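User: Could you check the structure of this?
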Amino acid sequence: MAVREHPLKGRFDAAAARWVHPDADDGAPGELEIGFAADGLVAMRRFDAPEGTILIYTPEEWAAFVEGVKDGELDLSVLIEDARQAGE
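Assistant: Sure, the predicted structure tokens are below.
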């Protein structure tokens, strides 16, 4: 199941991708693995389940995701505050 088809983004060949397994903030091995395909697609999967679900991103989507992480949009405290404000 190396090639994954996405109806809008095309084919992602997991076997041909260059996979990176970044460490967590505390230096422990991270749970995610990021794959970079030659055609620019980027994928993310759980390190311990390489045959499981793979999220596929276009280069533009990946850049927006990374920028959001850098800006703190995915910090737990920010998400909690956003949810609290949405409930008011």
